[in-house]
Amino acid sequence: QVQLVESGGGLVQAGESLRLSCVASGRIDTIIFPRWYRQAPGKQRELVAGITSGGSTNYADSVKGRFTISRDNTKNKVFLQMNRLKPEDTAVYYCNVLTNQFIPYWGQGTQVTVSS
Predict the structure, then answer these.
(1) Higher pLDDT residue, 102 or 74?
(2) Are the beta carbons of 22 and 4 closer than 8 angstroms?
(3) Are 1 and 103 in contact (CB under 8 A)?
């Protein structure tokens, strides 16, 4: 099993930055695809960014050029650097990982609120 804990959320003004962190524990050797999702009130959860074991990244169109996903070499931490935040980025952000058995695990989420 894998346990995930997110941190770094908060209240910021439009144009400011935040850096989210996700710390994994447990069977981190099985993690192959860390991702960040978000869910705004009344909306479906959506994929924000993902990173493969080889370092390839993908982003939602709405965050390209503003958000950057990264992971540390020990593979137990994943980050989401969010720049030039917009009010529409307001959501609960969730860390998600996929293991080599394609089992997904979720963190508890961290709130990001961007005021205009």
Answers:
(1) 102
(2) yes
(3) no
